Structure formats: C-alpha cells, structure tokens
Amino acid sequence: METQGSGTHSVDQLTTAQAVLQRLKQAVQAKVIGRDEVVELTLIALIADGHVLLEDFPGSGKTTLAKALGEAIVDDQERHAGSDNPPIAAFRRIQFTPDLLPSDVTGSAIFDASTNAFHFRHGPIFAHVVLADEINRTSPKVQSAMLEAMGEKQVTVDNRTYALDPLFFVIATQNPLDLVGTYPLPTPQLDRFLFKIIMRHIDRDAELQVLDTWQQRRDQSSSTIKVGRNEILAARAAIDEHVYISDSIKSALVDISRNLRHDERVLQGNSTRSLVLSLPALQVLASLRGRPYVSADDLESLLPHILGHRVELAPGVSDFNKVLRDCMREPIEQLARSTLKASA
Asked: Which CATH superfamily is domain 243-343 in?
C-alpha cells in the first residue's frame, strides 16, 4: 500500500510528466497548423515507445511535423570520452527509393588507411526522430533493416551490434494513391507500428493560417520550447509506473480482440503484441487528459488507430470502423457496468 509520502511523490512525477507532454505539444503545434489530433497521437506514440505510420499525400506537413518534434528535443545525456556511441542527431530524414541499400540506412564499415582498420560510420538511423519517407518505395531488404531497428533498437553490421538511443522514434510515411513501383508492407511488418494515422486535408481556416504565417514559421529556425531527452525518458517511466490500468480494461481489450478475430467480416485479426503495445499508449492518453487511470473513453479513442492497420477485412468489406464499433459494443458495456459496480 502506498504511504502518504509515496502517493504525493507519484502525483508530483505525473504532474511533471504531463508538463513535459504539454511543452512538446506546444513546440510542435507552433510549427504544424490544423493537425492537433495527429500531433497528439504522435506524442502519445513517442512517450509510449512506439512508432507511427502516416498515410498521406505529398505536401501534407509530415516533414514539418517530424522536424519540429526533433528540434524540440535536446540531447542532454552525459557522454564519456572514448565511448562508441556518437552524438545523436535531433532529426534525420531518409528518402526511400528502390535503389537504396540497408547500409545507406544503418551505416557501414569504412576502411581507414592510416590505421589499417575498418571503422563503423553511423548511418542516418542514429537520431532521436527519424522520418522514413515513402517507406513502401524501397525494397523488402531495406524495409527489414529498418523494421529490425524499430523492434530491437539496435543495428547489426559485420557481426557487430550497435545500440540505438532509447528515445529512437520513427515516423514513416506512405502515399496511398501513387502505388506504381512500390513494395507494400505486409501485415507482420505493419504490426511494428503502434499507430497508423490517415491524414486528411486541413480545414479552410487552418489552411488560411498556414498561408498567413508561413514566412514567420520559415524564419523561425528552430523551436523556442525545448525538452531534454532525459525529461522525456523520465516522463515515460513515470506514466508507466503511476497511471493505473484496471483488470477490467485489460479484459475489455482481450474481448474486443476476440470479437474481431471471430467476426465473419474479418479475415485476419490483430496480434497479442498489439494488445501489449496498446497499454502504454492508453496510459499516455490518460495522462494527457489529466487522469491517473485508463478509462473506456481512452479505449474508444485509440483502438481505431491501433487496430486499423492490423486487421485484414474479408473481401467486399471496407468499413473497418463499423466492424470495430460492433465488436466493441458489448465489451465496453460490460466495462461500464463493472465500473459502476466498483464505484457503488
């Protein structure tokens, strides 16, 4: 049982974590206009230690989003002389093309004639925020190297493994319209992404604001709001430790998944891994909403983004959201009844 002191300490840690989230949100929203939901989901994925796949069209602001997030993060970790770990870049953009090689992403061993030895040259993947632009335009070999780094937070070159930073975060994009010369990601690889976010055109007022402020935002070279890398990692740990997930929430997650897998409109359901990955995301959303516990509202908000790219629908079925709503209805009602019973 928590003592009064430990309870106060947990409240302080959560308050600090919420402040970190709000500062990051302000920094990104100052550069990215009209996409508040996308910004929020991206920050949830960052703090929940996941990755994001954006399905978008050219010029939708994905580079601006990733760059604004990277520029808001300050690398404040201590580095010791002689360490193999290089300084981590805030942001790197990798343009994926069919002729790209895995070494173009991860780095490669370069021969140094002066020392008569090979030295590893770190690739662009060694950054806090990596924009993997048009990831479906590169070969499966490069996709595998990228997704291995996302899953294990490490790269292996010439039988030597190099660790990526714990904050390593990928924003990948794919164009849903121009599919010529692409290598679509199979479902098991899509499962590596916490969220798939479909970006729409921003509304008229937001688009006018973009035109009115583009010079001001262009001349502002970097974010004036900065958040330390260690602050983000501390916020991640605090939310994980102090935001409560009840057994009823976990039961609802499992029941929704089982309903999807048994629904005749679904060809392939979601994995157990998706349920595990959803827990920290739900905790972060609850924290953003000022609660130290996960609620049914959090489930309804996030599950479409968590499960949409993991569930394969049967031929002739196109409306995933309707299928999900039907499969969620009974578990959410049971969750509401159990919550009322517990509070009675």
From this structure: Magnesium chelatase subunit I, C-Terminal domain (1.10.8.80)
